[in-house]
Design a protein that fits this description.
- The complex is a heterodimer of chains A (304) and B (271).
- By secondary structure, chain A is of the alpha/beta class.
- Chain A is built from twelve helices and 14 strands.
- Chain A has helices at 6-20, 32-35, 38-43, 55-66, 85-93, 122-127, 140-152, 196-209, 227-237, 252-260, 283-289, 294-302; strands spanning 3-5, 24-28, 48-50, 71-77, 100-104, 133-135, 157-160, 165-167, 179-183, 188-192, 214-219, 221-223, 239-247, 267-273.
- Chain A has a seven-stranded mixed sheet with strand order 3-2-4-5-7-6-12, sandwiched between helices.
- In chain A, helix 9 packs across helix 10 (252-260).
- Chain B has 271 residues and is an alpha/beta fold.
- Chain B has a five-stranded parallel sheet with strand order 1-2-3-7-6, with helices on both faces.
- Chain B starts with a helix and ends with a helix.
- The chains are: A alpha/beta (304), B alpha/beta (271).
- Chains A and B meet through helix 4 and helix 5 of A and helix 5 and helix 6 of B.
């Protein structure tokens, strides 16, 4: 299967969008070669602003630029969402300014740079902010849809992207705030987002081999969250698992838990980083270390 | 307006500050009183495209109160300029009021950016100036920062960017009243040679010896821009200016006058 890193898709999507909409400007904090905004920089140099290694100033500069009718996309590593959090909160979300955040290298699969650079808390930080829309695309096609949707939304949008190549799936219908049924099933349901789609698909195969019929639902939008779809599949299957490359606190698992709270009685388990930081290593080894390979996910589900 | 009329407006804005903070029993009178001349000069004389009836005119000059706790001074100025009626003062810092504890662009007409978290306003102003250049708008962006606020690293990040992007359509006004919450600047966190520091960051600097002298303030604000450089007006002001018992007193940073104190202040501020 053809693969492409979602961050690469983010950069390519900006270039495409830039050709269609001259209000799009891109800001980066000296990471254009990593966040992949260098394509936009090459295509539209007069619409690219390097802010130097000063993420906080980048965010509020974008806030100011948005008041002139521009649509700024800020790009840096997801781990720096914490570094410029006050600016995202007070400079952008509080006044509901029209600023987009394409933050890359999220999660442990950033790999060798280690735990200091592996964001496991960014979804939680962004979900809790009023006026913020949160996207976690699972492949290159979905990423382009998220970038296009972000430009259409009048207000702040966060897009979480990953470093490593991920499989490109057949294009799926996209609607902001709606989950995607990847596979219908009846024995249990797995809810996932982002690059964990690849690994939950592997888990589904392992579970099928054990005679189970699992449902799999992927969410590109974590806020607003498709609570109806989560409730429907939880009610249908009874056993609910959430899988994310993020802390089990404050991310997809908690979005699902909030949706299900008070709606019935379920077996429920959140699979992700268990209130812990990552560490250096090869991404594949890190997924195994934190029990996030398809085989391990299936094993956890079978033993719950 | 002539200078006498502008001075009358300043006196009225000072009264507004006392009335608002007294009614609310809270607020920041000290650092509000120190910037009255600057705000009145900006909104009544210097800024272009200012029209209370059309406060979204895309080509208007912009103002960002980076030291957002001085909101009473901004609210008083906007009120005197006609953006809203004096009855709104009753809602200052109150539930459903448009005059929030710190300026809120979504709630208050005439407020161009929500501020209060220090260091952010100057950065937003830099973005506005850059965005104006990008979109070909011939407008000027003004922002007032505090000397205490300049403890924030972000003030220096924003200054670096203003010089890098050659924002000669930006004026940063530094309210150098020498005091912050816990004491004088030198007691809390010394800025050292503040002029030399900001000059090294690339500003064209005009120093105003008495930042509460309207004529000096107007002269500085009307000085032609220096091509390719952001402007800083280094304004030496007196915290609490105009109210005898507040002048130069650290304790009046974030404390409201009681009824007796307010009455005395209003008496001092009679025309």
């Amino acid at each position: 299967m053809e693969k492409k890193a979602i961050r690469v898709a983010y950069g390519e999507s900006l270039v495409k969008l830039g050709a269609e909409n001259d209000k799009i400007v891109v800001l980066d904090a000296d990471l254009a070669q990593a966040t992949m905004t260098n394509g936009f920089k090459a295509a539209y140099p007069s619409r690219f602003y390097d802010c130097g290694i000063a993420e906080a100033n980048m965010v509020d500069m974008a806030a100011g630029m948005s008041t002139m009718g521009l649509i700024p996309f800020c790009s840096t590593f997801a781990v720096f969402a914490g570094r410029c959090y006050d600016q995202i909160r007070n400079g952008v979300c509080y006044p509901k300014f029209n600023v987009k955040f394409g933050f890359s290298h999220a999660g442990i699969t950033l790999g060798e740079d280690g735990g200091s650079h592996q964001a496991v808390e960014d979804i939680a930080l962004m979900r809790v902010l009023p006026n913020m829309t949160v996207f976690v695309p699972s492949d290159a096609n979905e990423c382009e849809q998220c970038v296009r949707a972000a430009a259409e939304i009048n207000g702040p949008v966060f897009i979480r992207t990953a470093r490593l190549p991920s499989p490109i799936y057949d294009p799926r219908p996209f609607e902001v705030g709606k989950g995607t049924v990847i596979r219908d099933g009846s024995d249990l349901v797995i809810f996932t987002c982002g690059i964990m789609l690849e690994h939950t698909l592997d888990a589904v195969e392992a579970l099928k081999a054990k005679g189970l019929n699992p449902a799999l639902v992927s969410f590109h939008t974590l806020k607003p969250f498709d609570e109806d779809l989560a409730r429907f599949y939880a009610a249908k299957c009874g056993k609910v698992f959430t899988v994310e490359e993020h802390s089990i606190i404050g991310g997809l698992g908690d979005a699902v838990a909030s949706a299900l709270c008070g709606t019935g009685s379920f077996t429920f388990r959140k699979i992700g980083l268990n209130d812990e930081f990552g560490q250096s290593g090869k991404p594949a080894d890190l997924l195994r270390e934190y029990h996030l390979t398809g085989e391990q996910i299936a094993d956890t589900i079978l033993h719950t | 307006m002539d200078i006498k009329q502008l001075q009358d407006v300043c006196r009225q804005v000072r009264r507004d500050i006392i009335i608002m903070t007294n009614k609310a029993g809270a607020g920041h009178p000290g650092g509000s009183l120190s910037i009255v001349e600057t705000l009145v000069a900006l909104y009544f004389d210097v800024m272009k495209g200012i029209d209370p009836k059309d406060d979204k005119n895309p080509d208007r000059d912009r103002f960002v109160l980076s030291k957002g706790h001085a909101a009473p001074a901004l609210y008083g100025t906007l009120c005197e300029r006609g953006y809203f009626g004096r009855e709104e003062f009753d809602g200052f810092r109150q539930l459903h009021g448009i005059l929030q504890g710190h300026p809120d662009t979504k709630k208050c007409p005439g407020v161009d950016a929500s501020t209060g978290s220090l260091g952010q306003g100057i950065s937003i102003a830099v973005g506005m100036a850059l965005g104006a250049k990008h979109t070909g708008k011939n407008l000027h962006v003004y922002t007032i920062i505090g000397d205490g606020e300049s403890d924030e690293g972000m003030v220096w990040e924003a200054s670096m960017a203003a010089a890098h992007y050659k924002l000669d359509n930006l004026t940063v006004i530094l309210d150098n009243n020498g005091m912050q919450i816990d004491g004088t600047n030198d007691q809390v966190m010394s800025l050292g040679d503040v002029r030399a520091k900001f000059a090294a960051f690339g500003y064209d600097i005009i120093e105003v010896k008495d930042g509460n002298d309207l004529t000096q303030v107007l002269d500085a604000l009307h000085a032609p821009a220096c091509p390719g450089k952001p402007r800083m007006i280094l304004l030496h002001t007196l915290k609490g200016k105009g109210v005898s018992y507040m002048e130069g007193q650290v304790g009046w940073h974030g404390k409201a006058p009681n009824n007796e104190q307010a009455a005395q202040a209003l008496k001092e501020l009679e025309g």
